[in-house]
Amino acid sequence: MTETTTAVKPLQFYGTSSPNVWKVQLLLKELNVPFVYHHLDIRNGDQYSAEFIKVNPNGKLPAIIDPNIEGEPVRVFESGNILLYLADKYKRFIPQDIKGRTEVLNWIFWQMANLGPSMGNLYHFLVYAPEKVPYGINRYFNEVRRLLHVLDKHLDGKNYIYNEQYTIADMAIYPWTKIISFLPDVNPVEEFPNVSRFNKTIGELPSVTEFNQELVQFQSRNPYKPPTDDERKWMFNRDGRSLSPNNSQ
Predict the structure, then answer these.
(1) 98-221 sits in which CATH class?
(2) What is the CB-side half-sphere exposure of residue 45 using CA atoms within 13 A?
(3) Residue ranges of the domains in the chain?
(4) What is the helix, strand, coil percentage profile of the chain, to 5?
(5) How far is CA 135 from CA 42, 115, 119, in A?
(6) How far is CA 181 from CA 8, 119, 132, in A?
(7) Average pLDDT for consecutive 10-residue bins of the chain (249 residues)?
(8) Which fold has domain 11-92?
């Protein structure tokens, strides 16, 4: 793929307030490329609109449309894929040698397949589940704890995930590790000292500091409220038929 030779057009960036979306926001802040942000209300089914399903047929966030490509604009969905696409396109925040690139991708895929899903499921059972399910809570709590110890061991003596440089691996992992304070009966500083130091290192980067300030402002304007029964249907109780705009389930 090659970029168009006309004036640069803004990316179309679709998101909501979640760690997976924050990853892409961190990278876009560093790249300083123009984009238009579309905030989708996942409690009211924006992610299943006919318009957005054309962007991501899976109905999940984030996603982007890049119009600066010859021919048809390129759609990119899945947060890890967006990070990789943008890092490759601009040749920044990813090593250009095969060894370094592979190590960065090791940790991005680790986050995508392990830390993110496990933390998301634990948060669901702790916060969203209509009744407490001890098996679900214990299953995902233990797995999250195990994964954080894996990461803590890797970060021993390191400030960044790879080779003391800020890469898309850090951007993929930090949005999840920054929220580990929700874990019940865990003191992150004591149990995961290297992860806690990593959070401090990344959080003090100028672009990340700015992002966190903006996030606090957004959250103060939009405080958490438990979802209503109708909102829960959009968030959790969809089956494959729900991707059709004609389905009124």
Answers:
(1) mainly alpha
(2) 18
(3) 11-92, 98-221
(4) 60, 10, 35
(5) 27, 19, 15
(6) 41, 12, 20
(7) 70 98 98 97 94 96 96 97 98 98 98 98 96 97 98 98 98 98 95 98 98 96 93 87 49
(8) Glutaredoxin (3.40.30)
